[in-house]
Amino acid sequence: MLLLNPGPVTLSERVRKSLLQTDLCHRESEFFDLQDEARQRLLEIYALDPTAWSAVLMTGSGTAAVESMIGGLVPAQGKLLIVQNGVYGERIAQIAAQYGIAHTLVTHEWMEAPDLARIDAALAADRAITHVAVIHHETTTGRLNDLPAIDKLCQARGVRLLVDAVSSFGAEAIDFGGNIDAVAATANKCLHGVPGAAFVIARRDALASATSRTYYLDIARHAKLQDQRNTPFTPSVHAYYALVEALREHRDEGGWQARHQRYAALAEEVRSGLAALGVEALWPAAQSSVVLRAYRLPAGVTYEQLHDGLKARGFVIYAGQGGLSSQLFRISTMGALHASDMHRLIAGFREILHR
Ligand SMILES: *Cc1c(COP(=O)(O)O)cnc(C)c1O
After folding, report:
1. Residue whose CA is closest, atom 2 of ligand 1?
2. Ligand 1 mutation target, pool 5, 166, 334, most atoms within 8 A of CB
3. What is the pLDDT of residue 323?
4. Closest by CA position to 338, among listed 279, 257, 253, 280
C-alpha cells in the first residue's frame, strides 16, 4: 500500500530496516549519541548555527511540537496573534485558549491566502502583541502561506514569529534569518521518518526566556537536558532510530532542495495526469506547496468511490477536512514514492472515472 496522505509516509527500505537495530536504554550513552546526531542533523538541513539555534526533540506527533512551542515560547506577559486559514491555524488558537495565553486572531476563509494588510493592521492596532503564529504549509488546502512576507511584517513591527512547519520542514524553503524564533515539525512528514518523534527548532535566546505552562512538553526543560546529553522521560527510541536514518538519507539525496525538486516533479505528474482526466487542481502551482495538492472532486463521483477504488489498487488518498470533504480530495507526494507510482495512480483514476 502506498500512502498519499500527508503523513505518516511510505517508508524507504533503508528507514524501515533502521527500526530493527539493537534495543537501547535511554539512560545509556548510545541513546544520547543517537539523540545528539538527530539534533545536529536537524540543524544542518537549513545550515543553522548550533550556538544560536537548538533542535529540541520530543516524543509525540507534530501537534506535540506545536503545543510545546506555543505553550513555552510566548512569554507570561506576551500576546500572540494567530494567522488562521485552515484547520492547523485553528488548532493553534485552541492551544492558546487552553493554556490561557493572551491571543488575537486574524481569520480567513479556508480557501483564502493570509491578508497581509489585515495582519499588519492588527499588529499596528495592538502594541501588546509580542508574537505571531502562522502555519507555513496549511495542509487543509495545500496552500503554502507566504512566510517571508509575514516575517517582513514581524520585522517592521518588532514582533517574533512562531511557525508550524510540520508539513513543510525539509522540503520547502525556510529563511531563518528574519524574526523567526521557532519552527515546529515532525519526523514523519517531509523527513520520511516514523511517527513518534517531533521537534522544535528554536533560537537559544528565545529558549532562555521561555515559560513553563506545560509539564510534559516544557520546551526549555527538554532543551536544557538534551544539551546535557540527558532526557526527562522515556523517548520513543525506535522512532529516533528511524529519524536519524531518515536524516542521513535526506542528506545523501541532496537535502531539502533535492526533496523539493523531487516532490515538485511528482506533484506535476499527478496534476497533469488528473488534468487530462478533467480533474482540476484547487489552485495554481505557485500558491501550492510541493508537498500536497488539493483537487476538486469531479462531478458525479463521491470521495468514497474514489478512495475505495484507489485503495483496491494500492493507494491511500486523503479527504478534504471538515466542510471541504464534499468538494475536495488531497494527494500528498511525500514519502518513498516514484514517478512510476504516479503513473499507476493516474491509470487507477482513469479506470475509476471512466466506469
Ligand atoms: C500534520 C500536521 C500537524 C500535526 O499533526 P499530527 O497529527 O499531530 O502529527 C500540524 N500542523 C500541520 C500543518 C500538519 O500538516
Report:
1. 166
2. 166
3. 80
4. 253
If you measure from the C-alpha of residue 63 to the centroid of ligand 1, how many angstroms do you get, rounded to a whole number?
A: 6
Tell which atom from ligand 1 comes closest to the C-alpha of 7.
Answer: 1
pLDDT at 35: 98
Ligand 1 atom nearest to CA at 195:
9
**Statement: residue 151 has pLDDT above 90:** yes
In angstroms, what is the span from residue 189 Cα to ligand 1's centroid?
9
Contact present, 69 and 99 (Cβ < 8 Å): no
Furthest CA-CA distance within the chain: 61
DSSP single-letter state for residue 185: E
Residue with cell string 512562531: 162
Residue 80 — φ and ψ, nearest 5°? -110, 130
Give me the helices (H) in the chain, please.
13-18, 29-45, 62-73, 87-98, 116-125, 147-157, 204-208, 219-227, 237-252, 255-276, 303-312, 339-353
Cβ contact 187:65 at 8 Å: no
For 299-353, the pLDDT digits (tens) are 889 999 999 999 999 999 999 988 888 899 999 999 999 999 999 999 999 999 9
Mean pLDDT to the nearest integer, 68-84: 97
Per-residue pLDDT band at 179 (split at 50, 70, 90):
very high
Ligand 1: residues with CB < 6 A are: 6-7, 61-63, 66, 88, 135, 139, 164, 166-167, 186
Cβ contacts of 95 within 8 Å, gap of 6 or more: 66, 67, 70, 71, 101
> How much distance in Å is there from the Cα of 278 to the middle of ligand 1?
30
